[in-house]
Specification:
By secondary structure, this protein is of the alpha/beta class. It contains nine helices and 15 strands.
Amino acid sequence: MKLRSLTLRDFRNIASLSVSFNESITVLVGDNAQGKTNLLESIYFLSTGRSHRVNDEQICIKNDCESALIKGVIEGSSPFELKVVLHPLGKSLYYQQTLIKRSSDFIGKMNAVLFSPSDMELFDASPKARRRFMDTELGKINPVYVDLLSKTMKLLKDRNTILKEKVIDEAYLEVVTERLVGFQSDIIRLRTAFIQRINASLNKYFTQLSLSSENIQIDYSGPVEWSIDCETELREKYQRHLERDKFMKVTSVGIHRDDLAFKMNGIPVSDLASQGQRRMIVIALKCALLDVIEETIGEKPILLLDDVFSELDALRRKALFSTLHQNTQTIISTTDLEHVKEWLSDAVTIYEVTSGKIRERKQL
Ligand SMILES: Nc1ncnc2c1ncn2[C@@H]1O[C@H](COP(=O)(O)OP(=O)(O)OP(=O)(O)O)[C@@H](O)[C@H]1O
Ligand SMILES: [Mg+2]
């Protein structure tokens, strides 16, 4: 899968931009605050139908403008066009000029894996970023997951509304709980399998990138462990927590409380790993994701590396270069070409990004 061209109108600090990408490596170089991340964000939008930086996507519309447009032409087994329009009422997603109603029909049409410095949030105290990671990445390869998740979130909301009523409708509460149990056991199964699959490659990539032998593993914790009896166990757990839920007026059990624990040699990464090691764990995670996506959809996703090189020493930068597949389309942002010198060759396109404008740089 390759992004052939990208057109932007009034997206962030970019008034108008039209750019084509080569099949392998493109470098976006520019000083701080010029629009490199904005450009990568727009490509991520085409992959997931949303921003990786903000929840309120109105912020992505250029100041004092009415709407923003992102359009990409993707070369897969057959070429197709994806379009995102941000407007005051929200956003509209298009596939081949047809408005897409359900975002699950848009997400993953173009698959991109993004490394962003904000991924370091994965090691923060709050589990929110880790759940978002699972939801985004699983959603990109499995539309069924997106539907299951949105149905579950709606049911959780319904259940909480019932619990808050003065007189609880017990029959309705039971129906909603039973549906929740069914959907959630599917989600637990999919999340468990996904993390298992990531773990299968994570260590290999971390060793290659870090040139060290620490053991990296992700532990998934859901409301119950996945097994063939998962549904029964979950039902029983809801039953055990019923009185408490009624008292607290909120659902205490469920996949909305799930978390991931990143461990290095069995110890939480946040307690142990250096800045550089954390960065390499995230990069290893993204490399593992590339494999998982390719295995699932049969095509290599596009790799977006935003400012990946800061905090990596020369040796690790080199290790990253030799770890990545040369035939993956890769778009890299950097403030300094010196950081990507291993990547530079005649086949690489370099674009200079200045004040939201882009210009090809012919000379290295
Ligand atoms: N809606 C918007 N309208 C106009 N400008 C915006 C909007 N949103 C962000 N910007 C501007 O875009 C610029 C930041 O662009 P971006 O984050 O892409 O920088 P960058 O080139 O990645 O820089 P760095 O190297 O520091 O990461 C900032 O100057 C910011 O004020
Ligand atoms: Mg940036």
